[in-house]
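User: I've been trying to design a sequence by hand for this structure and keep getting stuck. Would you show me what you'd pick, starting by listing the structure so we're on the same page?

Assistant: Good idea, let's start from the same input. This is the structure you sent:
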């Protein structure tokens, strides 16, 4: 079902949350691309995070613009409800300044709603970016949000330390909390910690080369944050880590705990024209990102999902048009509050599955949604699949296709068309977004 009430421009990076006090009330977040004709006759593009709201279980939807509060663009949307039905919308805010013609590094901002998403506050700044694109400063990225109780929420994000001319200087994970419904937020604190299995930017064991944090609130009130962390700097392969943080302050109180190794190095994927990882016959960028989910029936039971290339035949050609890829969704679970984790297991299927997101239902069974190319023997077109655990805690799944038509990112893209390095695949898409979330009624 389309939830868009605006123009024909695309949307991506979807997030969704179900109101625990009213399951017919849901809020979706997405990047909403806007095309505008300038006075000179050229078409300019910008993007804003929009709320898509339903009060009838998804039968009808309303698009609700957020107050951009002076930002010229927003992105990386994330939505959550607390236990009493207050809604929170986190995103990045981008701006320009007189001293930064290339654009200022983004702020982490959050808006809140007390009426199920029908109206929203102006966005509140949680963390300021410093400097501008390509210069020394702080580039905040990939924020996400979780909420609990009455008026409590946590935002986590990556803080890229940019050196001279924007050179990389590490990327620890930070957190901030609110206890007044999003009106004010605590000073952000670094939560990624250190461990013997981490590779620090300065050669130590600090876990400060990270990306893609996602928080989750357990049934017993504990808060956990999962993120990708570099484990090897020659091939840039990652590992999934989890930390526990204090609900009152956001400070780390446990971990990092290692979930498992991720097969996502530069030698594990073909590389697109922009130097990014991609899949067979494709040009859109991809990565291993997934999320952490907490079982509402058991405060100690957690799961982490991601996608990687462990089941692709290696060596993998760098040329996407020579490679045969087989990306799988990977799942691991913990029964002791994240201290130890089961061996990562694949939800095996032919072709590529990617951008997974997990959520537990009120029955304690795990659901995982993901983009899925197994419906196309050529491994080009993708649909969307929901994998549902057969019995709670087994990590044995049944799968069902949710989409009624397949999408082909390998050719004829209208909006994110990149270069055409292979004439058999004209105008391939270069961007599908970086994630797509799911949620379930508890």
């Amino acid at each position: 079902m389309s939830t868009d009430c605006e123009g024909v421009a695309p949307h991506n990076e979807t997030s969704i949350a179900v109101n625990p006090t009213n399951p017919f009330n849901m809020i979706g977040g997405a990047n909403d691309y806007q095309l505008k004709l300038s006075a000179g006759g050229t078409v300019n593009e910008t993007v804003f995070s929009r709320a898509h709201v339903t009060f009838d279980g998804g039968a009808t939807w309303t698009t609700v613009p957020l107050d951009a509060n002076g930002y010229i663009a927003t992105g990386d949307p994330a939505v959550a409800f607390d236990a009493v039905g207050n809604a929170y919308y986190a995103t990045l805010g981008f701006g320009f300044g007189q001293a930064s013609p290339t654009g200022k590094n983004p702020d982490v901002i959050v808006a809140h709603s007390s009426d199920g998403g029908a109206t929203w506050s102006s966005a509140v700044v949680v963390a300021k970016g410093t400097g501008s694109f390509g210069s020394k400063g702080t580039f905040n990225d990939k924020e996400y949000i979780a909420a609990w109780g009455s008026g409590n929420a946590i935002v986590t994000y990556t803080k890229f330390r940019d050196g001279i001319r924007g050179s990389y200087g590490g990327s620890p994970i930070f957190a901030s909390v609110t206890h007044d419904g999003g009106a004010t937020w605590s000073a952000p604190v670094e939560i990624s910690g250190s461990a013997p299995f981490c590779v620090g930017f300065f050669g130590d064991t600090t876990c400060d080369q990270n990306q893609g944090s996602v928080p989750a609130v357990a049934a017993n009130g504990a808060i956990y944050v999962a993120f990708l962390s570099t484990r090897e700097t020659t091939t840039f392969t990652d590992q999934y880590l989890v930390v526990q943080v204090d609900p009152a302050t956001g400070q780390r109180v446990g971990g990092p705990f290692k979930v498992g190794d991720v097969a996502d190095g530069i030698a594990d994927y073909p590389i697109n024209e922009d130097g990014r990882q991609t899949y067979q016959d494709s040009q859109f960028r991809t990565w291993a990102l997934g999320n952490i989910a907490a079982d509402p029936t058991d405060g100690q039971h957690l799961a982490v999902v991601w996608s990687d290339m462990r089941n692709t035949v290696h060596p993998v050609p760098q040329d996407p048009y020579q490679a045969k890829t087989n990306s799988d969704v990977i799942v691991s679970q913990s029964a002791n509050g994240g201290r130890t984790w089961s061996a990562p297991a694949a939800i095996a299927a032919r072709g590529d599955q990617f951008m997974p997101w997990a959520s537990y239902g009120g029955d304690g069974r795990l659901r995982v949604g993901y983009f899925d190319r197994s419906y196309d023997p050529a491994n080009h077109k993708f649909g969307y699949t929901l994998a549902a655990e057969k019995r709670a805690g087994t990590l044995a799944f049944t799968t069902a296709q949710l989409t009624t038509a397949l999408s082909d990112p390998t050719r004829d893209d209208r909006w994110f068309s990149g270069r055409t390095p292979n004439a058999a695949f004209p105008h391939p898409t270069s961007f599908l977004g970086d994630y797509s979330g799911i949620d379930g009624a508890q």
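That's my pick for every position. To get oriented when you compare it with your attempt: The CA atoms of residues 222 and 429 lie 40 Å apart. The mean pLDDT is 95.
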